[in-house]
């Protein structure tokens, strides 16, 4: 993969037919480099019909998930790729199927960490952030929810074209398209009609969560926050930028999964706005989101963060202590120990620093790195308390 260029903007025009599962797409990338005679993008098995560079047809090769474009470019340039086919998720041994996937009635995109090339050609690195224009045409009974603000929804006969704009820089894995027969259960919360009442109850405290997290972490970083609940069950909910997706199984009318509602929302600060420069820093996403579950529990009259920490510690003590969460190997990026021990790391730091300094640190972290990409070292530099953090992040044994 060629890292010697950057992409600033993706304009994606997609036409999707749920019944035949056929996608026709056009991706226009605005990129820049110093000088190259060829460059590569990640792109899955969809069939490419044409590649234009700066408006002129370019020679290209497309194999093994890589689109190699042979064109001399210098400074700012545009790449225009036309493609079509039946999108399929990217299968991985570690994380199962990623990216564009069909639902019983509609489709879902959940790309973390490497599924984005299943539906558009991209520079698929977590540090590579760009603005997006997403235009999706689908049959009119379907609702299309994408990242960002809906700027236009045009009905023309049997189809509707939904246009969204995500102006804030976004990593490729956080770009998403959700297509289904959804109704609005709450403002910006989409669900199948049969789940409307349960969803309205279970997501009813989301505004209070946004208020809590805004007071602890700083202002909510995007213009809006949407949720989609699919009619199908999902293994886990997934965060996208300005949007999270839950399965029908995460809704019970008793807020049985509210912990996850808080977790996905917290990713808007930790993971989405403050992104990671590489996947090995994943505890900065998952540890913080997991800790946010405990903060919500504490603030909403549930278990205190101390009690949540004690339970997590108990759980970790009974698991192998052979993982360095500050630098996990690829197979363990999403290991539960990264989540739980990451949260415990923050709890230990909070107890050492005291609440005022600790939450001031989190606000400084979010403000300084808003819409950027960070590393664990960046956090150590800002937080100090290096001895404590070293024991939690870079030693496998669980600290006392
Ligand atoms: Zn998470």
Could you explain the architecture of this structure?
The chain is α+β, with helices and mostly antiparallel strands and 400 residues long. The chain has three domains: 1-181, Immunoglobulin-like, CATH 2.60.40; 182-268, Zincin-like, CATH 3.30.2010; 275-394, Neutral Protease, domain 2 (Orthogonal Bundle), CATH 1.10.390.10. It contains nine helices and 23 strands. It has helices at residues 196-202, 206-217, 258-266, 283-299, 305-317, 336-353, 355-368, 376-383, 386-394, and strands spanning 5-17, 22-36, 39-42, 47-53, 56-57, 59-63, 66-70, 73-85, 90-92, 96-103, 106-110, 129-139, 143-146, 149-156, 159-171, 177-180, 183-186, 189-191, 226-229, 238-240, 243-246, 275-276, 373-374. The strands form five sheets. It has an eight-stranded mixed sheet with strand order 5-4-8-2-1-12-15-14, with no helix packed on it. The protein is globular. The model has no long low-confidence stretch (mean pLDDT 97). Residues 112-174 form the Aminopeptidase N-like N-terminal domain. It is an enzyme of class 3 (hydrolase). Its cofactor is Zn(2+). This is Aminopeptidase N. Belongs to the peptidase M1 family.
Give me a quick take on this structure.
The chain has 400 residues and is α+β, with helices and mostly antiparallel strands. The protein has helices at residues 196-202, 206-217, 258-266, 283-299, 305-317, 336-353, 355-368, 376-383, 386-394; strands at residues 5-17, 22-36, 39-42, 47-53, 56-57, 59-63, 66-70, 73-85, 90-92, 96-103, 106-110, 129-139, 143-146, 149-156, 159-171, 177-180, 183-186, 189-191, 226-229, 238-240, 243-246, 275-276, 373-374.
């Amino acid at each position: 993969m060629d890292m010697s260029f950057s992409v600033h903007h993706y304009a994606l025009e997609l036409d999707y037919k749920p019944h035949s599962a056929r996608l026709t797409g056009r991706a226009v990338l605005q990129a820049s480099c110093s000088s190259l005679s060829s460059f590569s993008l990640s792109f899955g098995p969809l069939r490419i019909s044409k590649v234009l560079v700066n408006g002129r047809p370019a020679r290209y090769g497309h194999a093994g998930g890589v689109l190699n474009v042979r064109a001399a470019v210098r400074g700012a340039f545009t790449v225009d790729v036309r493609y079509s086919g039946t999108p399929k998720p990217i299968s991985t041994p570690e994380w199962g199927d990623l990216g564009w996937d069909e639902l019983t009635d509609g489709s879902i995109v959940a790309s973390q960490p490497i599924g984005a090339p299943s539906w558009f050609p991209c520079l698929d690195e977590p540090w590579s952030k760009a603005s997006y224009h997403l235009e999706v045409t689908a049959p009119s009974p379907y609702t299309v929810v994408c990242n960002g603000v809906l700027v236009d929804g045009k009905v023309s006969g049997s189809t509707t074209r939904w246009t969204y704009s995500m102006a804030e820089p976004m990593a490729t894995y956080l770009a998403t398209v959700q297509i289904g027969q959804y109704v609005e259960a709450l403002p910006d919360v989409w669900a199948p009609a049969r789940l409307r009442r349960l969803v309205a109850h279970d997501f009813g405290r989301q505004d209070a969560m946004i208020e809590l997290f805004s007071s602890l972490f700083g202002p909510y970083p995007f213009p809006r926050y949407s949720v989609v609940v699919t009619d199908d069950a999902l293994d886990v909910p997934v965060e996208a930028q300005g949007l999270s997706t839950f399965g029908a199984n995460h809704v019970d009318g008793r807020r049985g999964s509210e912990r996850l509602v808080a977790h996905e929302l917290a990713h808007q600060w930790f993971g989405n706005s403050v992104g990671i420069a590489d996947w090995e820093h994943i505890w900065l996403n998952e540890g913080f989101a997991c800790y946010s579950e405990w903060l919500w529990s504490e603030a909403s009259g549930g278990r205190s963060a101390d009690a949540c920490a004690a339970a997590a510690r108990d759980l970790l003590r009974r698991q192998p202590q052979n993982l360095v969460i500050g630098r996990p190997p690829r197979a363990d990026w999403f290991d539960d120990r990264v989540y739980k021990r990451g949260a415990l790391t923050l709890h230990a730091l909070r107890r050492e620093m005291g609440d005022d300094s600790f939450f001031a640190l989190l606000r400084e972290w979010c403000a300084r790195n808003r819409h950027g990409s960070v590393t664990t070292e960046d956090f150590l530099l800002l937080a100090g308390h290096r001895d404590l953090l070293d024991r939690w992040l870079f030693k496998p044994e669980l600290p006392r």
